[in-house]
Protein backbone atom coordinates (compact mmCIF):
# COMPACT_ATOMS: atom_id res chain seq x y z
CA UNK A 1 0.00 0.00 0.00
CA UNK A 2 1.74 3.15 -1.23
CA UNK A 3 1.37 6.65 0.24
CA UNK A 4 -0.56 5.44 3.27
CA UNK A 5 -0.40 7.12 6.66
CA UNK A 6 1.53 5.02 9.14
CA UNK A 7 -0.08 5.07 12.59
CA UNK A 8 2.35 4.02 15.32
CA UNK A 9 -0.37 3.06 17.76
CA UNK A 10 -1.34 0.92 20.69
CA UNK A 11 -0.08 3.60 23.07
CA UNK A 12 -2.84 3.26 24.18
CA UNK A 13 -5.15 1.12 22.05
CA UNK A 14 -8.36 3.04 22.81
CA UNK A 15 -6.77 6.34 21.77
CA UNK A 16 -5.52 4.71 18.56
CA UNK A 17 -8.99 3.56 17.56
CA UNK A 18 -10.47 6.95 18.40
CA UNK A 19 -7.73 8.65 16.35
CA UNK A 20 -8.67 6.57 13.31
CA UNK A 21 -12.34 7.47 13.80
CA UNK A 22 -11.39 11.15 13.95
CA UNK A 23 -9.52 10.96 10.65
CA UNK A 24 -12.46 9.28 8.94
CA UNK A 25 -14.93 11.82 10.34
CA UNK A 26 -12.72 14.80 9.44
CA UNK A 27 -11.99 13.79 5.84
CA UNK A 28 -14.18 15.35 3.16
CA UNK A 29 -15.13 12.12 1.41
CA UNK A 30 -18.35 10.92 -0.21
CA UNK A 31 -17.29 7.30 -0.79
CA UNK A 32 -14.85 4.74 0.63
CA UNK A 33 -12.23 5.34 -2.05
CA UNK A 34 -11.91 9.03 -1.14
CA UNK A 35 -10.77 8.28 2.40
CA UNK A 36 -7.15 8.10 3.58
CA UNK A 37 -5.27 4.81 3.45
CA UNK A 38 -3.83 3.95 6.86
CA UNK A 39 -1.51 1.22 8.04
CA UNK A 40 -1.85 0.83 11.78
CA UNK A 41 0.48 -0.81 14.27
CA UNK A 42 -1.79 -1.26 17.28
CA UNK A 43 1.09 -2.50 19.43
CA UNK A 44 -0.58 -2.58 22.85
CA UNK A 45 2.25 -4.55 24.51
CA UNK A 46 4.82 -1.76 24.07
CA UNK A 47 6.29 -1.19 27.57
CA UNK A 48 4.75 1.60 29.63
CA UNK A 49 6.11 4.99 28.64
CA UNK A 50 5.46 6.82 31.90
CA UNK A 51 6.91 4.03 34.03
CA UNK A 52 10.19 4.16 32.11
CA UNK A 53 10.40 7.97 32.10
CA UNK A 54 9.83 8.13 35.86
CA UNK A 55 12.42 5.42 36.51
CA UNK A 56 9.82 2.97 37.80
CA UNK A 57 10.63 0.48 35.03
CA UNK A 58 13.89 -0.48 33.35
CA UNK A 59 12.10 -1.73 30.23
CA UNK A 60 12.41 0.95 27.55
CA UNK A 61 9.61 1.27 24.98
CA UNK A 62 11.93 2.98 22.50
CA UNK A 63 13.20 -0.09 20.63
CA UNK A 64 9.67 -1.35 20.00
CA UNK A 65 8.51 2.03 18.72
CA UNK A 66 11.55 2.43 16.48
CA UNK A 67 10.96 -1.02 14.98
CA UNK A 68 7.29 -0.22 14.40
CA UNK A 69 8.17 3.05 12.66
CA UNK A 70 10.65 1.23 10.42
CA UNK A 71 8.05 -1.45 9.67
CA UNK A 72 5.55 1.23 8.60
CA UNK A 73 8.20 2.86 6.40
CA UNK A 74 9.08 -0.47 4.76
CA UNK A 75 5.38 -1.11 4.12
CA UNK A 76 5.24 2.03 1.98
CA UNK A 77 3.84 4.70 4.30
CA UNK A 78 4.53 8.28 3.26
CA UNK A 79 4.69 9.59 6.83
CA UNK A 80 4.16 8.40 10.41
CA UNK A 81 2.00 9.73 13.24
CA UNK A 82 2.14 8.75 16.91
CA UNK A 83 -1.19 9.26 18.72
CA UNK A 84 0.41 9.44 22.16
CA UNK A 85 1.87 12.53 23.84
CA UNK A 86 4.02 10.65 26.35
CA UNK A 87 5.69 8.65 23.58
CA UNK A 88 7.11 11.91 22.21
CA UNK A 89 9.77 11.71 24.89
CA UNK A 90 11.37 9.33 22.36
CA UNK A 91 10.40 11.41 19.31
CA UNK A 92 13.89 12.34 18.09
CA UNK A 93 15.03 8.70 18.21
CA UNK A 94 11.97 7.58 16.28
CA UNK A 95 12.27 10.35 13.69
CA UNK A 96 15.97 9.68 13.17
CA UNK A 97 15.31 5.97 12.62
CA UNK A 98 13.32 6.48 9.39
CA UNK A 99 13.66 8.45 6.16
CA UNK A 100 10.01 9.52 6.00
CA UNK A 101 8.51 12.43 7.98
CA UNK A 102 7.09 11.88 11.46
CA UNK A 103 4.45 14.36 12.63
CA UNK A 104 4.96 15.69 16.15
CA UNK A 105 1.70 15.93 18.11
CA UNK A 106 3.16 18.47 20.55
CA UNK A 107 4.55 20.82 17.90
CA UNK A 108 1.31 20.59 15.93
CA UNK A 109 -0.78 21.34 19.03
CA UNK A 110 1.27 24.35 20.12
CA UNK A 111 1.25 25.75 16.58
CA UNK A 112 -2.52 25.26 16.32
CA UNK A 113 -3.10 26.95 19.68
CA UNK A 114 -1.01 29.96 18.68
CA UNK A 115 -2.92 30.32 15.41
CA UNK A 116 -6.24 30.09 17.23
CA UNK A 117 -5.09 32.86 19.55
CA UNK A 118 -3.78 35.13 16.79
CA UNK A 119 -7.05 34.73 14.89
CA UNK A 120 -8.98 35.43 18.12
CA UNK A 121 -10.80 32.11 17.90
CA UNK A 122 -9.56 31.87 21.46
CA UNK A 123 -10.27 35.12 23.38
CA UNK A 124 -6.63 36.14 23.74
CA UNK A 125 -3.17 35.64 22.31
CA UNK A 126 -1.54 32.42 23.45
CA UNK A 127 1.41 33.00 25.74
CA UNK A 128 0.73 30.44 28.46
CA UNK A 129 -0.67 26.94 27.99
CA UNK A 130 -1.93 24.65 30.72
CA UNK A 131 -0.97 21.03 30.06
CA UNK A 132 -3.13 18.16 31.28
CA UNK A 133 -1.11 15.01 30.71
CA UNK A 134 0.46 11.93 32.26
CA UNK A 135 3.09 12.25 34.96
CA UNK A 136 5.56 11.04 32.33
CA UNK A 137 4.79 13.86 29.91
CA UNK A 138 4.83 16.46 32.68
CA UNK A 139 8.10 15.30 34.26
CA UNK A 140 9.87 14.93 30.91
CA UNK A 141 9.13 18.56 30.02
CA UNK A 142 8.38 17.79 26.37
CA UNK A 143 5.73 20.50 26.08
CA UNK A 144 8.11 23.10 27.52
CA UNK A 145 10.88 21.83 25.22
CA UNK A 146 8.78 22.51 22.12
CA UNK A 147 6.91 25.48 23.57
CA UNK A 148 9.96 27.60 24.40
CA UNK A 149 11.10 28.12 20.76
CA UNK A 150 7.50 29.08 19.94
CA UNK A 151 7.44 31.68 22.70
CA UNK A 152 4.87 29.77 24.74
CA UNK A 153 5.14 28.94 28.44
CA UNK A 154 3.75 25.49 29.25
CA UNK A 155 2.66 24.88 32.83
CA UNK A 156 1.47 21.83 34.73
CA UNK A 157 -1.26 21.54 37.36
CA UNK A 158 -0.30 21.85 41.01
CA UNK A 159 0.61 18.43 42.54
CA UNK A 160 -2.81 17.75 44.03
CA UNK A 161 -4.53 18.44 40.73
CA UNK A 162 -1.94 16.38 38.83
CA UNK A 163 -2.92 13.43 41.02
CA UNK A 164 -6.52 13.97 39.93
CA UNK A 165 -5.42 13.91 36.26
CA UNK A 166 -3.40 10.73 36.84
CA UNK A 167 -6.47 9.12 38.43
CA UNK A 168 -8.64 10.05 35.45
CA UNK A 169 -6.16 8.62 32.95
CA UNK A 170 -5.13 5.38 34.65
CA UNK A 171 -7.91 4.47 37.08
CA UNK A 172 -10.87 5.62 35.01
CA UNK A 173 -10.33 6.00 31.24
CA UNK A 174 -7.79 3.20 30.71
CA UNK A 175 -9.82 0.99 33.06
CA UNK A 176 -13.04 1.66 31.14
CA UNK A 177 -14.78 3.92 33.66
CA UNK A 178 -16.35 7.31 32.83
CA UNK A 179 -15.06 10.66 34.07
CA UNK A 180 -17.61 13.22 35.24
CA UNK A 181 -17.82 16.69 33.76
CA UNK A 182 -17.41 18.14 37.25
CA UNK A 183 -14.10 16.31 37.74
CA UNK A 184 -12.44 17.50 34.53
CA UNK A 185 -13.87 21.03 34.81
CA UNK A 186 -12.38 21.34 38.30
CA UNK A 187 -8.91 20.79 36.81
CA UNK A 188 -9.58 23.03 33.79
CA UNK A 189 -10.74 25.85 36.09
CA UNK A 190 -7.60 25.33 38.18
CA UNK A 191 -5.46 25.92 35.06
CA UNK A 192 -7.49 28.99 34.14
CA UNK A 193 -6.82 30.25 37.66
CA UNK A 194 -3.09 29.87 37.02
CA UNK A 195 -3.42 32.37 34.16
CA UNK A 196 -3.41 29.93 31.25
CA UNK A 197 -4.70 31.34 27.96
CA UNK A 198 -5.76 27.85 26.86
CA UNK A 199 -5.74 24.34 28.29
CA UNK A 200 -4.33 21.40 26.32
CA UNK A 201 -5.64 17.88 26.61
CA UNK A 202 -2.07 16.60 26.41
CA UNK A 203 -2.87 12.92 26.83
CA UNK A 204 -4.71 11.00 24.14
CA UNK A 205 -6.77 9.19 26.78
CA UNK A 206 -8.11 12.58 27.86
CA UNK A 207 -9.31 13.00 24.28
CA UNK A 208 -12.06 10.53 25.10
CA UNK A 209 -13.32 12.94 27.78
CA UNK A 210 -13.05 15.82 25.31
CA UNK A 211 -15.35 13.92 22.95
CA UNK A 212 -17.79 12.42 25.43
CA UNK A 213 -18.32 15.64 27.39
CA UNK A 214 -18.44 17.79 24.21
CA UNK A 215 -15.74 20.14 25.48
CA UNK A 216 -14.97 21.44 21.99
CA UNK A 217 -18.50 22.79 21.75
CA UNK A 218 -18.62 24.22 25.28
CA UNK A 219 -15.03 25.27 26.14
CA UNK A 220 -13.38 27.31 23.40
CA UNK A 221 -10.15 27.60 25.39
CA UNK A 222 -9.68 23.81 25.68
CA UNK A 223 -7.74 22.15 22.84
CA UNK A 224 -7.45 18.41 22.28
CA UNK A 225 -4.00 17.34 21.05
CA UNK A 226 -5.37 14.19 19.40
CA UNK A 227 -7.96 16.24 17.48
CA UNK A 228 -5.16 18.54 16.29
CA UNK A 229 -3.02 15.59 15.18
CA UNK A 230 -5.94 14.08 13.26
CA UNK A 231 -6.57 17.42 11.55
CA UNK A 232 -2.89 17.77 10.61
CA UNK A 233 -2.85 14.19 9.31
CA UNK A 234 -5.79 14.82 6.98
CA UNK A 235 -4.18 17.99 5.60
CA UNK A 236 -0.72 16.42 5.18
CA UNK A 237 -2.38 13.57 3.27
CA UNK A 238 -3.56 16.13 0.72
CA UNK A 239 -7.23 15.78 1.63
CA UNK A 240 -9.78 18.46 2.45
CA UNK A 241 -11.38 18.80 5.87
CA UNK A 242 -15.09 18.12 6.14
CA UNK A 243 -17.08 21.24 7.03
From TrEMBL:
The keyword Ribosomal protein does not apply. Pfam families: Asp_Glu_race. GO terms for molecular function: amino-acid racemase activity. Keywords: Isomerase. The keyword Phosphoprotein does not apply. InterPro entries: Asp/Glu/hydantoin_racemase (IPR015942), Asp/Glu_race (IPR001920), Asp/Glu_racemase_AS_1 (IPR018187), Asp/Glu_racemase_AS_2 (IPR033134), Asp_race (IPR004380). Belongs to the aspartate/glutamate racemases family. NCBIfam families: asp_race. This is Aspartate/glutamate racemase family protein. It comes from Lentihominibacter faecis.
Amino acid sequence: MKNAVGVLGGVGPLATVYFMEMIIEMTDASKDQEHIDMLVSNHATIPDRTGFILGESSESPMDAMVKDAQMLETAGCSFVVIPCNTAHYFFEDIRNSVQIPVLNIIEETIDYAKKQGSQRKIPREIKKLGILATEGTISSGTYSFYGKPAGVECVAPDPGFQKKVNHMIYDQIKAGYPVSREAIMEVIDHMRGKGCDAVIMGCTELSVIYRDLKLRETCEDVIDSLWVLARSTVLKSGKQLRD
